[in-house]
Amino acid sequence: MTNQSVVEINTSVEINTTSVHDGNLLHCVEEESLILIMAVVIWVLGVIGNTVTFFKIVLNKRLRRPVSVSIACLTVADFCSLCMQFIRIPISQCFFLTGIGVKMIVLDITAVAIHSSTMHIVILAAIRYCLIVYPFHTKWRLTSGKVIASSGVSWAISVCLGISYGIYNRKYYNKTIDKQTDAIVQLLIGLYVLLVPVTFFVIFYIKELRTMKKSLLPKRTSKSIISISKMISMILILYCVFILPYVVADLCRVLYFHNVFSDSGDSTVYQYVVIPIYSVAQITILLNYTVNPFIYFLFSRMIFRVRSWPFRSKLSYRPRKRREQNGI
């Protein structure tokens, strides 16, 4: 996911410096300009969406509820991942011929951000599970402080894994690890990023199906929880859709290095199969960190209105009780 595969794709541009200055750079820029333009548009939308969502929650005291706070934490992780993935595009293509040291630092920080986003998706899945299976316990025990603490833990774990990835990355660039081994490692990392949230979601979902049949929640509270559940489900589904192209590209890279496509390992396969898939993956992964604020907007009526949140369900029954006591 944070691999050097995209950097490696254009190593021929870096190695053959004279040919670059003789005109290949212009051809390269024309060829990759569409990717860069799309990336800029998506990046701008993502920055605006994540920033607006974050400050909407932070600056409005009524929105500082566990679900909203978890969304704010996710927007921070998505913002960092979006920016790092965007930076990778010009330095991994041939717009800027940066040094290996700069690329390694960018990859290290990207690894931290992506893992943090993955962990925050898991946190959202856990909150969804608690809301459906233990709604009344969640009402009192799940606090915004606990959500922030879990976010802090996820960032700490992500930093540790980012350092580990940085050590591995330097061994690769020092040629201690060959390309065939690296291709397998990068595929495993991509599968980890994809499958960890999916695994938690599937496990939680199976348990939720049993609980929903026995639910005795008030209609208003149940409607709010179902809306939140749909929102989180949509986030997870789109997460899988947008991450999958990178996994497919890594798989193709593994097959290429093991000469599965051709006995001779023809480079045209890499050029016309692997490179286009990586180009698509660069765009979809940006979309992954951009689309969430727009999903929040679709569900804003149920998510960002305090009346719909279960904490207000107890208050909503007070007028009814008073009318009953007065015989009305």
Automatic annotation (TrEMBL):
One of its GO terms (molecular function) is G protein-coupled receptor activity. The chain crosses the membrane at residues 34-55, 148-168, 183-206, 227-249, 269-299. The keyword RNA-binding does not apply. Keywords: G-protein coupled receptor, Membrane, Receptor, Transducer, Transmembrane, Transmembrane helix. Residues 49-296 form the G-protein coupled receptors family 1 profile domain. The keyword Transmembrane helix applies. It comes from the Eukaryota. It is a multi-pass membrane protein. It is found in: Membrane. GO terms for cellular component: plasma membrane. This is G-protein coupled receptors family 1 profile domain-containing protein. It comes from Magallana gigas (Pacific oyster). The lineage of its organism: Eukaryota, Metazoa, Spiralia, Lophotrochozoa, Mollusca.
